[in-house]
Structure formats: structure tokens, C-alpha cells
Design goal:
By secondary structure, the chain is an alpha/beta fold. Helices cover 39% and strands 14% of the residues. It has one domain (13-248): NAD(P)-binding Rossmann-like Domain (Rossmann fold). Helix 6 links the parallel strand 6 and strand 7.
């Protein structure tokens, strides 16, 4: 399966972080990228979870390989980067999907700051670490893309979940996503000369846990599809934007 790519028949390689849950976005993003012709490196903190999802997708005839990855640990990222460089020599798409710490009902004054710190470590610094590590391999791609999975919870203008919508909400999660949005803008500017397009995409409220459909959550494939859109945009497509379903969202 891990055949090095060559100039004559280059493999398109995509890496997806945070694919731990069977019903989560990560697994479905991997499925759709594989259907689009990528070899997908599906990652999760626990290798057993990644291997289970990859095996299920391979049973569908899809090219998916499992890897252990903890985006909060430099050593884990370094090990995977070395493997990708040795095995493939490049990376085409990086999907920074790993995220959590949804502190529903909390306020900025009451939320536990240790919890907030962990939210920033995963939701912001995880994507930041991955980007710094893999940009040298993305530079070797003909069509490099980075997609950061954001949220309207980090928006200043969203009337429902945005930062200014109500005093309660998801402060740790929302602020960490606001910071991720800001990182995306900075990266897009810095990486423009290197032809790497970077966007942040909100998949919306998706049914990533059983029972969320009754609260109006959209199907997971729909949320994943708009993230995959960011991986497939043309070379003259947007960079440094905030999108859902291919449409701009307010910051």
C-alpha cells in the first residue's frame, strides 16, 4: 500500500487529523477525499480507532491508510512527518480537523481555565503545529491545500452561536476557533508566494453524535462535503477565507 510516488505517476496524498469516532467528520472526510482520488492518511490518537476506520473504508474499495497522531505532541507529529516524507516525498492536502472542548453553557468568567488551555492546545496549536511541520512537504505538491475546520462559534457576527450572540455559549471552544480563524488569515498571506491555499471552513451543526438529528443537526456527509470543497478548489480559488458549503461566512 505504501508505494512511493514518482514523477511519472504521482499519488495525490491527503492527511486528515482527528478521525477517532465512527460517526465523526474525520472518517467521512477521509471517505470523500478517497472517492475524489486521494490516498488518505487517516489519523487518530489511538491507532486502533484509526485502523478500524481505515479498514472499513478499504472494504468500500477506497485507498485509506491508518496512522496514530496526537496533534498536541511534537514527537507524534515529527514521526508522522518523517514517514510521509520517506514514503511519499510530498503532501497535497492537510485537513486540520482535530478539535473538541465544547463547553456548552459556560461563560468566560466561570469556565475552568485549565479546560480552556486544553481547548487552545488542541483546536489552535494542534493545527499550528501540523502546518509548520507539513508546509515543506506541501510545497512539493502541484496543488497544495490546507483546510482548517472552524466554527461560527468563533465568529463575531453569527447571530446564533457567535461570540457576541449571548453571554453563555461555548467560550473555550469559541475563542479557540476565533484564534484558528486568525491563524488561517495569517497563514494565507504568508503562504501565497508558495502557492498554498489556506481556508477555514465551518461544517455547521452536524450529527456527529447519535440523537443530534432531532435537534436539527445536518447529516455528517453534508458537513464533510463542504470541508472537502476546500481541498478541491482550483488554483485561482479563494485563500484566507471563512466558508460553508462554498459560500463566505461573516467573521
Amino acid at each position: 500500500m505504501n508505494t512511493p510516488s514518482s514523477p511519472d505517476s504521482p499519488l495525490k496524498i491527503a492527511l486528515v487529523t482527528g478521525a477517532s469516532r465512527e460517526t465523526g467528520l474525520g472518517r467521512e472526510i477521509a471517505r470523500q477525499l478517497a472517492q475524489a482520488g486521494f490516498r488518505v492518511l487517516l489519523t487518530a490518537r489511538q491507532i486502533a480507532a484509526a485502523e478500524g476506520h481505515a479498514a472499513a473504508l478499504r472494504a468500500e474499495g477506497l485507498d485509506v491508510v491508518a496512522h496514530a497522531l496526537d496533534v498536541t505532541q511534537d514527537s507524534s507529529i515529527t514521526a508522522l512527518r518523517a514517514h510521509v516524507e520517506t514514503t511519499y516525498g510530498h503532501l497535497d492536502v492537510l485537513i486540520n480537523n482535530a478539535g473538541s472542548y465544547y463547553d456548552a453553557g459556560a461563560t468566560a468568567l466561570t469556565t475552568d481555565l485549565a479546560y480552556a488551555h486544553e481547548a487552545l492546545e488542541l483546536n489552535l496549536f494542534g493545527a499550528w503545529r501540523m502546518t509548520q511541520a507539513f508546509v515543506p512537504l506541501l510545497e512539493r505538491s502541484a496543488h497544495p491545500r490546507i483546510v482548517n475546520v472552524g466554527s461560527v462559534a468563533g465568529s463575531f457576527e453569527d447571530p446564533t452561536l457567535g461570540l457576541a450572540a449571548h453571554p453563555q455559549g461555548v467560550p473555550s471552544y469559541g475563542i479557540s476557533k476565533t484564534a484558528l480563524h486568525a491563524l488561517t488569515v495569517k497563514l494565507a498571506l504568508e503562504l501565497k508566494p508558495r502557492r498554498i491555499l489556506v481556508n477555514v471552513i465551518c461544517p455547521g451543526f452536524v450529527a456527529s453524535h447519535p440523537g443530534l438529528e432531532k435537534f436539527g443537526a445536518r447529516p455528517v456527509p453534508d458537513g464533510a462535503r463542504c470541508i472537502v470543497w476546500g481541498a478541491l478548489i482550483p488554483d485561482d480559488g479563494p485563500s484566507g477565507g471563512f466558508h460553508r458549503d462554498g459560500n463566505p461566512l461573516p467573521w
